[in-house]
């Protein structure tokens, strides 16, 4: 409760939740004696989808090889503490309270957005917990994101880029998004470009053409091939036969391959094939094609219902998830529980599942403000040709979905916040 009160106060420091600028974060970091200059061996991860999966894959590989890791992700899924990972563990409630209060006092009630403030907190705490590697997931875009305050890093990773957050752009085009995410990448480093749509890859390469960093590109410098019992990873150093990662979906093999390509190219670390094989089978990830096999949620459905949760919230992610659902070939009907934030491409997102889901149950996203009303969301689903209705709670939605079809796959998606609320219920 104490943490929630502090976070609520911090949200009042600026009228906007997001206001793209580096002035405020640089001012606060200066007041904190520039902790960002005291951390080293930083890997920055930018992109639209897959950032969290790449970050957690990197963490698992480095830790398996005996290296210490600090990691900053955004947003968190179930608890705010998930954003801050230092030397093998997430920050405790007491440590988090102390960190927030200390930074709040130094900020002295000056205007700063919530995201900028919590980025400054990470840099401060990371500077006090010296690690072998620091992994930073960027927030919105990157060029003017609060994480883009470093003078050097050892790698920048570009995960798949697609349309999202168009309301923060002038025209809302893919060209704008690529520019915002890639034009600010640091020079004198290494840039890893993950599997992209061809037209997007061309745009990325054009934007970073004058960046003097080494470029390691999927399809040119590294690749993977799915096999019956795992996958074959290949780069300029050779080939490795690997088991499937502890992540569901073929697109996750792509994310893991990008992490592998990164660690194998960083010569200052001694990462063996054995480290990679061992690590990818124990990657920890929630809310990404996660199946609920135990917990309270199982009490609301039949034993034959499968509950799947994924925080997908844009069309690029929806396409990857739709492909996964298609490849299930289970013959079971799929009932979607859908909750989305207001600033998303609702119709475009839903249309991707038109031939895949039997019906949609629209819900408000609990404990959030800027969600799309369930009735409006349901009408959009209907306009896409998918039978839809609303429910008042996740609990009743699960119960009624199971009552409708006790053998169906119940797929919960549309927002990371929505996924987090469902997992908290469990």
Sequence of strands across the biggest β-sheet? 4-3-2-5-1-6-7-8
Report helical residue fraction. 25-40%
Radius of gyration: 21 Å
Q: Roughly how many Å apart are the termini?
A: 20 Å
According to DSSP, the number of beta strands is 17
Mean pLDDT: 94
Q: Main β-sheet: number of strands, strand sense, barrel status?
A: 8 strands, mixed
Question: Which stretches are low in confidence, meaning pLDDT under 50 for 5 or more residues running?
Answer: none
Count of helical regions: 14
What global shape is seen?
A: globular
Structural class: alpha/beta
Beta-strand share of residues: 15-25%
Index terms:
six-stranded mixed sheet, 17% strand, eight-stranded mixed sheet, 426 residues, single chain, alpha/beta
Question: What can be said about this structure in brief?
Answer:
Helix content is about 35%, strand content about 15%. With about 425 residues, the protein is an alpha/beta fold.
How is the topology of this model organized?
Layout lengths: L1 H9 L12 H9 L10 E5 L4 H14 L4 E4 L11 E3 L2 E2 L2 H15 L6 H15 L4 E5 L17 E4 L15 H9 L7 E4 L4 H10 L6 E4 L4 E5 L3 E6 L2 E6 L6 H16 L7 H8 L9 E3 L13 E4 L5 H14 L5 E5 L7 H6 L7 E4 L11 H10 L4 E3 L3 H11 L4 E5 L2 H10 L1
Parallel strand pairs: 1-5, 1-6, 2-5, 6-7, 7-8, 13-17, 14-15, 14-17, 15-16
Antiparallel strand pairs: 2-3, 3-4, 9-10, 10-11, 12-13
What would your notes on this structure say?
The structure is a single chain. The chain has 426 residues and is of the alpha/beta class. 37% of the residues lie in helices and 17% in strands. It has 14 helices and 17 strands. The chain has an 8-stranded mixed β-sheet, with helices on both faces. Strands 12-13-17-14-15-16 form a 6-stranded mixed β-sheet. The longest helix is centred in the middle third of the chain and has 16 residues, at 250-265. The model has no long low-confidence stretch (mean pLDDT 94).
């Amino acid at each position: 409760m104490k943490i929630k009160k502090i976070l609520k106060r911090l949200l009042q420091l600026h009228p906007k939740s997001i206001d793209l600028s580096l002035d405020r974060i640089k001012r606060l970091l200066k007041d904190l004696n520039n902790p960002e200059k005291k951390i080293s061996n930083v890997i920055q991860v930018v992109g639209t989808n897959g950032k969290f999966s790449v970050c957690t894959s990197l963490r698992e590989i480095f830790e398996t090889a005996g290296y210490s890791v600090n990691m900053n992700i955004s947003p968190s899924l179930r608890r705010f503490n998930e954003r801050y990972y230092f030397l093998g563990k997430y920050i405790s409630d007491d440590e988090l309270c102390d960190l927030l209060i200390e930074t709040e006092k130094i900020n002295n009630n000056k205007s700063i957005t919530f995201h900028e403030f919590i980025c400054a907190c990470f840099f401060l705490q990371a500077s006090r917990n010296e690690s072998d590697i620091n992994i930073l997931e960027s927030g919105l875009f990157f060029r003017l994101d609060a994480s883009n305050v470093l003078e050097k890093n050892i790698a920048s990773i570009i995960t798949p880029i697609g349309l999202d957050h168009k309301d923060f752009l002038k025209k809302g085009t893919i060209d704008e998004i690529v520019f915002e995410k890639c034009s600010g990448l640091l020079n004198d480093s290494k840039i890893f470009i993950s599997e992209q749509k061809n037209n997007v890859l061309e745009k990325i390469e054009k934007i970073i053409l004058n960046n003097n960093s080494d470029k390691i590109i999927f399809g040119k410098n590294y690749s993977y091939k799915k096999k019956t019992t795992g996958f074959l990873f290949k780069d300029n150093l050779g080939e490795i036969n690997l088991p499937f990662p502890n992540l569901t979906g073929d697109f996750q093999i792509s994310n893991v391959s990008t992490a592998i390509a990164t660690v194998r190219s960083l010569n200052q670390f001694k990462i063996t094939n054995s480290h990679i094989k061992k690590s990818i089978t124990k990657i920890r990830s929630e809310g990404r094609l996660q199946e609920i096999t135990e917990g309270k949620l199982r009490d609301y459905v039949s034993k034959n219902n499968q509950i799947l949760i994924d925080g997908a919230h844009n069309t690029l992610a929806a396409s990857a998830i739709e492909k996964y659902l298609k490849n299930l070939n289970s013959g079971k009907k799929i009932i979607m529980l859908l909750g989305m934030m207001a600033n998303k491409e609702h119709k475009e997102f839903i249309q991707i599942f038109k031939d895949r889901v039997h019906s949609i149950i629209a819900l408000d996203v609990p404990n959030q403000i800027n969600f799309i009303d369930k009735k409006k969301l349901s009408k959009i689903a209907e306009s896409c040709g998918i039978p839809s209705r609303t429910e008042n709670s996740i609990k009743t939605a699960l119960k009624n979905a199971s009552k409708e079809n006790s053998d169906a796959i119940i797929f919960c998606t549309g927002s990371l916040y929505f996924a987090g609320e469902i997992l908290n219920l469990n």
